[in-house]
Amino acid sequence: MSSEQPSAPSDAAPETRDGDAPAGVITDPKDARLAKVRELLKGRNKGSRAIIIDDEEPLAEALRHGVTVFTVFHGEDTQLPASVTELLPADADVQVVSTHAAKELFGVERRSRIFALARRPKPLTVPELLEGPGDVAVLDGVKLMGNIGAVTRSAKALGFAGLILVDSDLASVTDRRLVRASRGMVFALPLALATADDVVAHLGEVGVPLVSLDPEAREPLSGIAGIQGRIALLLGSEKRGASSRLEQAAERSVRIDIHPDVESLNVSVSAALAMYERRGANPLPAARG
Description:
Layout: E1 25-26, H1 35-41, E2 50-54, H2 56-64, E3 69-75, H3 82-85, E4 93-97, H4 99-106, E5 114-119, H5 126-129, E6 136-140, H6 145-157, E7 162-166, H7 176-181, E8 191-194, H8 196-206, E9 210-213, E10 219-220, E11 232-236, H9 244-249, E12 252-255, H10 267-277
Parallel strand pairs: 1-4, 3-4, 6-7, 6-11, 7-8, 9-11, 9-12, 10-12
Antiparallel strand pairs: 2-5, 3-5
Domain tRNA/rRNA methyltransferase SpoU type: 137-276
Region (Disordered): 1-29
GO molecular function: RNA binding; rRNA methyltransferase activity
């Protein structure tokens, strides 16, 4: 790799500034090597194919799934973990950033001790997402990154083949907030952005029924376990539910029975319960290694 490993962190280590930094450490937040990071953090050039990936786990997932990483940055007080170094090519560009420079770079945001510049993967279309076997989930009107990220993780963990986001207010499924919220699972699970009309049309073309989670449904959740073939599981926001366009297109609806003193479940909890009921239709692969 192109930089030396930093020394072990010290609880009392002062911030490194110009003049006392080890050779090769970036101490100036305006350093040219950080130019693209600054541009993306400030929201400039929204059409850029470059993205920022924060933290160890999302970066490892990106590398594991073939995302092109241009440069990895880490703090002078942080060692790159084996989960990352084992996946990096021998000639990877690795840069060390001083604590002072990183704080200035990220401003009021939480400072990322490990972050990378990478090429944004090519976005998937709904037809491409539906090419493979297995159930998919459709999130309609869910906008909170924490919820979308949690559903993404559950979908991957429970064997779903993909996730379609409708009316999410996202411009890209590799939005930095979602990469963080999903802990990098956006690189492991096929995701696509779509309109409600697109979802109805493309599911119809491949003959995959839309099955809605609806608290007023007559059929209990257990009913989805016996549905033969693939399904598209429809989930709406906790407050408003799914749109009328998709609810009307649903061929079947099931409910989750909960205590009468509880108004509703968070959408990510409902998704996980429903996905677990479908485990027979979505067998999991053998564990890695």
